[in-house]
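hey team, just a heads up i'm posting the complex here instead of the shared drive bc the drive is being weird again. everything in one block, sequence lines first with there labels, then the predicted structure for the whole assembly after. its two chains so it's a bit long, scroll down
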Amino acid sequence: MPEYNFLVVEDSPTMRQLITFALKRIPGSRIVEANDGIDALKKLSSQKFDIILTDINMPIMDGLKLVSMVRNDPVHRAIPIIIITTEGADEDRKRGLALGANAYIAKPIQTADLLSVVNEIISGKRG
Amino acid sequence: MDKDPGTLNKKVEEFLQVFKKGEEFTQELLRENEKLRYRLAQLEEVNKFSDREGTFKVHSLEERLRFLEEENKNLLDRYRQVEEENKDFASRYIEVEAENNNLANLYVASYQLHSTLDFNESLKIILEIVMNLIGAEEFSIMMLDEKTHELAVVAQEGMGPEAHDTIKTGEGVVGKVAKDGESYYREGDPTDLAGVDYTHPLVCIPLKIKEHVIGAIVIYKLLIQKTQFSNMDYELFSMLAGHAATALFSSKLYSQSERKLSTIQSFLDLLKEKQ
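-- predicted structure starts here --
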């Protein structure tokens, strides 16, 4: 069975738990949580991840900065990134995708939608 | 016209030979005729039998065809039935999935609500639930002061300065919810954003411990992507009414008892020092 390593970057423990709950339904998933962008970068430097799921509004380092740093990092630039945020306006979505995110999901999230996007990325349907 | 008797005999002899040959030929023809009749009779018999066999074959093939058609019809009926069952299973699967997701949301929300005895942290968790799980943009949590009978905002998200900090019990929509203990849902489209009216919230949920109201969650505006309230939202509202109330009440009591314990401990330390 293939193993998928997810990095969930979210300052809200409620959302972290909810996203983790959803991802656990994917067979072979292994989930690591980070509180903010800095915490995420630390975890990225020590572990290998297949997909990053990040919030935008976070203290210390926000999600957009994290996306930009990951995309400019030669080691991690290829990791697919899903932005999960309360900012649902079109311009926010465009901004997130322009920075290099692979998908953009607005809160409140529906587990089925989240899993559908993750599965598309895993199966290579979404680049 | 005298004829020579020798010549006459010869002619008679010839005639008799011809006649004999004719007789032989006729007999041969008769035998041949008999043979042909026999052959004809045989063929007629074979033909009759073939007809019977052919008819029998046609009958059995027709029977088989009818059977196969019947079987085909039965299979089509069964296929339709299975397809219906599949559709039914698929819709039930979707329902179970939705229910599963709802339960996961409720579990996470109640788990987080009861994960702390810190009052401010409890407030933060309620804000997170209302914002992230329900999708509210402007909302507040109000607590009831039993002495002044006033609801005061203890935490809020996204609200403008024109929002009221305090509301008297029984006053306006929020005050009435606090007085009656009944949830309020504004009629009409919840996404109608024609100016947020802080006197007419979208939703007001009383925070109740049994029938005792200790506060309220008041939602004025939803996130732009939130187009309507789902069944899940109503489940969350009713969960919040009870669980958020007990979480806030117990964390408040715990903070007070911690403060009292610290004061008593200070007194005890002071007494010990004096002895």
